[in-house]
Amino acid sequence: MKIYKAAIIGLGPSGLAVNKILYGDSDYEIIAFENEDVNKRDNYFGFWLTDWMKPFEPIIEKKWYKWNIEDNNINVTHTSSDKPYCVISFRKWKNHCLETKNKLKIKNKKVIEYFSFQNYFKIITADKSEYYAEKIYDSRSIKEKKGELLQHFFGVNITVEGHIFDKNKLTLMHFTQEKNLLHFMYILPFSHNKALVESTVFSKEVFTNSWYREKINDYLSLKNISEFKEDSTEKGVIPMFVAEEKNSSNPNIYNIGIRGGACKPSTGYAFSFLIKQIQLLKNSKKNYVNVHKFLEKKMDKIFIKFLKNNNENGRSFIKLASSLNGNEFQSFMMGESNLLTKLKIVKSMPKLPFIKELFKKDD
Ligand SMILES: Cc1cc2nc3c(=O)[nH]c(=O)nc-3n(C[C@H](O)[C@H](O)[C@H](O)COP(=O)(O)OP(=O)(O)OC[C@H]3O[C@@H](n4cnc5c(N)ncnc54)[C@H](O)[C@@H]3O)c2cc1C
Q1: Whole-number Å distance between alpha carbons of 104 and 114
Q2: Is the pLDDT of residue 192 over 60?
Q3: Are residues 255 and 234 in the same domain?
Q4: Do 131 and 53 have their domain in common?
């Protein structure tokens, strides 16, 4: 009977990070289970450059030192000379994390259950096979929950004729005015003629691809782009609720990634946080680390409650952005803002609805 040093459940970004960051320099034998064909997965993960992401600079696809938050009438441009917005593709992250000294066995199987068995764990897969490991890193998470807000999106990587995009400035949020719906476009211009154009919604239900496509086409027409070649697409659903599992009482079970609380629910940013989580786990004796600070979590919760109960059209986001400079904004988005920045944010928010949410009981 073979007993692996660790079993990773799910080879998304966090499972991959465990292989690289925790075991990459060791000789251990690790087993990973993945339900889907990860070789078919690719998408871009955006984040602002922080100290903990600096080791991954060589695999960053592109950096932008300027970004926009806007609607058709107001435009806020931020710049940062040393904390740019960056993207890493899933494919590059996967290749980086699979290039290690340790021996990783990947099983394309669904894990049904695992339980403690003598000094280790017995893992059962859908085909009723049994595997054994000393530690479990579990990244399975719920993406949807009835009555809760979701961030859902569909994007198209396009190539156009001519010099159309400003490759030095990305559009973080271009709010369109929809009836009772918060919708924005996210544009990553990789070059003057290549960009990811994504339609994003905050709502309780996910839409069909044709809905987002219509919004993408509307936006492109607004920019006088009528012809383009579609290179690839990406889509996703990110929970805007705390999709975190309780930390296990068994010290050898680690909940990681979104399951371990890495996501910042009000923004859907999780990638750089889940890397931070695994880095923190490396230096911790515990099976749980707090990726987000108490005050940040509290502000996030209030903001989500506000979004859930009010028809927000993007003006609060624009107001927040206009009250901060680029470095303050990125520090807030990356959970590193100081008290003064937090106060500026609170000051920029619509007072009455926020005070109401603050005193409302949790659902
Ligand atoms: C298209 C897309 C774009 C995103 N863009 C950004 C971004 O720009 N910036 C950012 O910060 N965040 C972004 N996110 C959010 C977040 O970073 C991702 O959701 C990220 O994939 C979370 O990683 P994870 O490892 O926690 O979970 P997942 O990526 O969901 O990985 C879990 C893995 O477990 C597998 N699995 C599930 N159940 C089982 C089972 N029973 N047995 C075996 N395997 C199983 C799944 O197939 C999956 O591969 C994006 C998400 C998506 C979907």
Answers
A1: 19
A2: yes
A3: no
A4: yes
Whether the pLDDT of residue 242 is over 90: the answer is no
**Gap from CA of 14 to ligand 1 centroid (Å):** 8
What is the edge-to-edge ordering of all strands in the sheet holding 169-178?
75-79, 66-70, 169-178, 181-191, 194-203, 150-159, 229-239
* Ligand 1 geometric centre to CA of 340 (Å): 33
Mutate to test the pocket of ligand 1, among 11, 35, 123, 186 (most ligand atoms within 8 A of CB): 35
Residue 354 has pLDDT above 90, yes or no: no
pLDDT at 357: 66
Same-domain status, 226 and 259: no
Q: Is 9 in the pocket of ligand 1 (CB under 6 A)?
A: yes
Helix axes 351-359 and 294-309, enclosed angle (nearest 10): 110
| 140 close to ligand 1 (CB < 6 Angstrom) | yes
Same domain membership, residue 132 and residue 7: yes
pTM score over 0.70: yes
Task: Indicate whether 234 pLDDT > 60.
Answer: yes
215 and 258 both lie in a single domain: no
The answer to whether residue 180 sits within a structural domain is yes
Among protein residues, the one with the nearest Cα to ligand 1's atom 15 is: 270
Please report whether residue 315 resides in a domain: yes
The predicted pLDDT at position 143 comes to 76
Closest CA to 358 of 304, 317, 294, 315: 304
Domain span at residue 215 reads 150-239
